Amino acid sequence: MSTAGQSGAATRPDMSKPAGSPNRPAERSADRPTEGMSTSALPGGSRPAGATVTGTGAARPAAARRVKLTVSRVDPWSVMKMSFLLSVAVGIAGVVLMAVLWLILSGMGVFADVNRTVESVLGTSGGTKFDLMDYIGFGRVVSLSIVIGVIDVVLMTAIATLGAFLYNVCSALVGGLQLTLTDD
User: Which of 38, 104, 131, 147 has its CA 20 to 30 A from that of 183?
Assistant: First the structure.
């Protein structure tokens, strides 16, 4: 049985070794503050905001760093959880929106005006009377919006999860989405 060192396989660098050792790349002294140096060691007793301490002890203004990152994989389980919560919020907002809209239109008398207009056009005869509220009453509107909200939750969750799987497949083929981030 051979060990990893004998087989010639690449091993991960040992991060427990001090900087500058053969298995760990050395950090540049300008990018890290000097360890153990207090701000009182600087001239004036403090350093300016946004300044970093170099190895020589002099403060220099910090420059904005640009970092290129690649989104190579999206976890489908976390996408499913987030899309479920967001679609539930959209469904609840839709039900509340429909209820408020119905109450506003009813308070303005829109349904009564439409009912009178339909009665005059149809010329109700023989005792049959048309009532718009039989079709778009408050209970029916809220019930229909709840059903649409539930369908919305199921569809949005399924589509977002399927989109995460599809993104992972495409990312494996072309390398993913590249982002450039800066810290200002």
Answer: 38
- The mean per-residue pLDDT over the stretch 68-93 comes to 96
Q: Taking each helix axis from N to C terminus, what angle separates 138-174 and 76-108, rounded to the nearest 10 degrees?
A: 150
DSSP 40: G
Intra-chain end-to-end CA distance of the chain, in Å? 53
Q: Please report the beta strands in the chain, taking only residues with DSSP state E, as ranges in sequence order.
A: 51-53, 59-61, 66-71, 177-182
Contact 168, 65 (CB under 8 A): no
Q: How many CA atoms lie within 13 A of 164 on its CB side?
A: 16
> What are the start-end ranges of the E strands in 28-176?
51-53, 59-61, 66-71
Return the exposure string of 113-143: e unless at least 16 CB atoms fall within 10 Å of the residue's CB, then b.
eebeeeeeeeeeeeeeeeebeeeeeeeebee
Q: CB atoms < 10 A from the CB of 102, how many?
A: 19
Instruction: Say yes or no to pLDDT of 52 above 80.
Output: no
Q: Give the model's pLDDT for residue 2.
A: 44
Rounded Cα distance, 132 and 106, in Å: 12
User: Helix (H, G, I), strand (E, B), or coil: what is residue 67?
Assistant: strand
